[in-house]
Amino acid sequence: MASDGMCRRPVLGLLAMLAVLGVLAGSACTPGGEPSPATGATATHGGPSRTSGAAPPAGQPSRTPTAAAYAGPPPAFGAYVGYGSDGVRRVAELAAWLGHASAPRVGHVYLPGDRWSNIEGAPGYLELWAQWRRARPDRLFVLNVPMLERTEAGLPDPTVRAELRLGAEGRYDDHFRVLAERLVRLGVPDTVVVLGWEMNGITYSHRCGPDPQAWQRYWRNIVTAMRSVPGQRFRFDFAPSRGLDAVPWTRCYPGDDVVDVIGMDAYDQPHGMSFAEQVAEPYGLRDQVRFARAHGKPVSYPEWGLYRNGDNPAYMRGMLDWFAQQRPLYQAISDYCPHGVWRCPGNPGASAVYRSLMGATGRPR
């Protein structure tokens, strides 16, 4: 999850509820006041490192997609709007803001990554979202799953390398088997698992850079363990951050047989980069789509939103047009400040674009 490293207005009621459930060992938050998926640290996603001038503007999508781009049902969309009962309630409130005919079909949350028991899906954490998913057959439950505990603890590369190698040896398989059993038992065996997201960066302990080969073997072990559970129908989403971050995300790709979706977390950054450049930069949006097509996979956008360029209606329109053209399996905006549109009043221009294009029908118009 992108952040500016500052912790504001903690959601005290929600943290208290999670503490009672034993889900979180401490209090942490992301910039919009949301509890961090990894307790004890605040995400410090500084954005990808990029060289200037590397992305020509030639990749800019049409500002007016053809009617064919919008043919058929709209791609599933949703938003990250928080955890637990507050998050479930906010999905309905977001639908009301957009117009109930365009109710979000994607519920997107993160497992806390502070300790293994929470990565296994601590009791009380997943039940409400499982109920939400089961209430309608067309809904999609998307769950970000850390690959290592102490996910945001700032572990040094040698420690990460040693942990990845233990994972590659199968030492942590049982934790993911427990999670898979819990999801099946809760009636959400078709969960989309965004495993080890933004692995090409430096924010998370499950980063790939210290040992890409061990990371790939570890991913394969996790998928094999989760797929071994009877009744599962999970889809595994490989979701790097957009662009050239610490390492090219293609170096981390674990193989077509253990990946179902090629995702991308695509925030409006760095400062001054146009949407056209975000499409055309190396390892950017265009390269993601090309890679997915070459490997026979659908694309997704588990995280996206405003960021370094502030209230940017051009970026918002560019992303929504991109979704209309590329037809992702799903897309989910991060709807907390500074990224969001509904819960972030500091972005009125982009908010108006999102509501105008996505309201009433759930598709850009």
- What is the percent of helical residues? 25-40%
| Total beta strand runs | 10
Number of continuous helical runs = 11
Largest sheet: 8 strands, parallel
Taking all Cα atoms into account, the compactness measure Rg is 19 Å
Low-confidence spans? 3-70
Major sheet: arrangement of strands: 8-6-5-4-3-2-1-10
Class by helix and strand content? alpha/beta
Report strand %. Answer: 5-15%
Mean pLDDT: 83
Q: What is the string of SSEs from the N terminus onward?
A: HEHEHHEHHEHEEEHHEEHEH
Shape: globular
Separation of termini? Answer: 29 Å
Overview of the molecule:
With 365 residues, this protein is an alpha/beta fold. The protein is 33% helix and 10% strand. It contains eleven helices and ten strands. It has helices spanning 12-21, 84-98, 116-119, 127-134, 157-168, 173-185, 212-227, 275-280, 285-294, 313-326, 348-358; strands at residues 76-80, 106-110, 140-145, 192-195, 235-238, 261-263, 266-267, 299-300, 304-305, 330-334. The protein has an eight-stranded parallel β-sheet. Strands 7-9 form a two-stranded parallel ribbon. Helix 5 (157-168) crosses helix 7 (212-227). It is globular. It starts with 11 loop residues before the first helix and ends in a 7-residue tail after the last helix.
